[in-house]
């Protein structure tokens, strides 16, 4: 794993943008995208750039189950607000959290990934080491599937909702196996509350207890982290 330590999240967004730009110059056509607060500075750098994504494809990691696409908290809406309205892609895929049958929607999504192999996958990381909605204990080879959110993720995400009861209890998420198919992976993390997860990801054993630790087994991973997120690393 290549670890780049940056001053802050603005520098991190710029560093991730430069890697994406280099990837596109080398022929990347499909970006795997993430939601959450972490990728916002990257999306701001993409919006501020003169890059055109209108011949590219994007594939998002996950979506809540049961929120309307235009719900302000849905990941469909997040991506429109933070990237797609300003920088449209030719095709943008986000899992369908409103499908009558979520298992069928998950299988369909895995087919989309098979047909559009992800060149560069952007990831955030949860305080518990989750990637996408793959919580501790997830199958390290899992594909897109329906997941039940853990209490810690509900707690972390409730800040975006009026009340905790409004946070969906289920999501549809690319699995760790789907994520590992990306040719290149950029994991971004900022702030001290990510420091334990980053230490376990880089220095700990590969274990389902820390889903991001499996990235140690991927051949092309860059972690872009700020000093606070790096603060518990031993070297
Ligand atoms: P955050 O979430 O970017 O809002 O910190 C990241 C994650 O939980 O994957």
Structure commentary:
30% of the residues lie in helices and 18% in strands. It is an alpha/beta fold. The chain has one domain: Rossmann fold, CATH 3.40.50.1360. The strands form two sheets. A seven-stranded parallel beta sheet has the order 1-10-9-6-2-3-5, sandwiched between helices. It has a three-stranded antiparallel beta sheet with strand order 4-8-7. α7 links the parallel β9 and β10. It is globular, with a radius of gyration of 16 Å. The model has no long low-confidence stretch (mean pLDDT 97). 2-phosphoglycolic acid binds next to loops.
Order of helices and strands: EHEHEEHEHEEHEHEHE
Backbone shape? globular
The CATH topology label is Rossmann fold
Strand content is: 15-25%
Task: Give the topology, please.
Elements: E1 2-6, H1 9-25, E2 30-33, H2 40-48, E3 57-60, E4 62-64, H3 75-84, E5 91-93, H4 102-115, E6 120-123, E7 145-148, H5 151-157, E8 170-173, H6 176-180, E9 184-189, H7 195-203, E10 221-226
At a glance:
The chain has 235 residues and is α/β, with parallel strands linked by helices. The chain has 7 helices and 10 strands. Bound molecules: 2-phosphoglycolic acid.
What brief labels describe this structure?
alpha/beta; binds 2-phosphoglycolic acid; about 240 residues; three-stranded antiparallel beta sheet
